[in-house]
Automatic annotation (TrEMBL):
<dbReference type="InterPro" id="IPR029069">
    <property type="entry name" value="HotDog_dom_sf"/>
</dbReference>
<dbReference type="GO" id="GO:0047617">
    <property type="term" value="F:fatty acyl-CoA hydrolase activity"/>
</dbReference>
<keyword id="KW-0378">Hydrolase</keyword>
<dbReference type="InterPro" id="IPR050563">
    <property type="entry name" value="4-hydroxybenzoyl-CoA_TE"/>
</dbReference>
<dbReference type="Pfam" id="PF13279">
    <property type="entry name" value="4HBT_2"/>
</dbReference>
<protein>
    <submittedName>
        <fullName>Thioesterase</fullName>
    </submittedName>
</protein>
<comment type="similarity">
    <text>Belongs to the 4-hydroxybenzoyl-CoA thioesterase family.</text>
</comment>
<dbReference type="InterPro" id="IPR006684">
    <property type="entry name" value="YbgC/YbaW"/>
</dbReference>
Length: 152
């Protein structure tokens, strides 16, 4: 059964819609005996990229503090082609949609311009005192929207 994809309208247009990218050095411990990157490693790359994206926008205090913490509500990966130890991996990250207390974050795993994997996940801002979702600060929303919209 083929699952509908969030990679729309086509892979190249989707890749080109990202404005934040970091290099990822694949470590030996992230591979199997054949040199393929293990499927769980992609999720570690997503986390690294997401944190660096938020740091780049100066959102660390808004999204990770004593009062609020961002948590992953769901996370998925569509594996499109294998990754290998020596691949020059680039990870692209964007906030595709932002709501009251959550955001939909997309990830593109790219090697030499080729989309090797696509990911997405919902991140929810939680109030640490209550353990319940809390609104994303307006300033954080504005910075994300300004970054994403001015580069489209």
């Amino acid at each position: 059964m083929k699952k509908p994809t969030f990679v729309q309208p086509d892979p190249q247009t989707w890749i080109d819609s990202f404005h934040f990218e970091i290099p990822i050095k694949i470590r030996y411990c992230e591979t199997d005996m054949l040199g393929h990157v293990n499927n769980v490693s992609y999720f570690m790359y997503f986390e690294q990229g997401r944190i660096e994206y938020f740091e780049h926008l100066g959102l660390t205090e808004d999204l990770f503090s004593e009062k609020h913490v961002s948590v992953v509500a769901d996370l998925e990966c569509q594996y499109l082609a294998q990754l290998y130890l020596k691949d020059p991996l680039k990870l692209r990250v964007k906030v595709a949609e932002i709501g009251r207390s959550s955001m939909d974050v997309h990830y593109a795993v790219v090697v030499r311009g080729e989309l090797r994997a696509a990911g997405r996940g919902t991140i929810v801002l939680i109030d640490t005192a209550t353990g319940k979702s809390t609104p994303i600060p307006d300033g954080a929303k504005e910075r994300i929207l300004a970054f994403e919209e001015t580069r489209t």
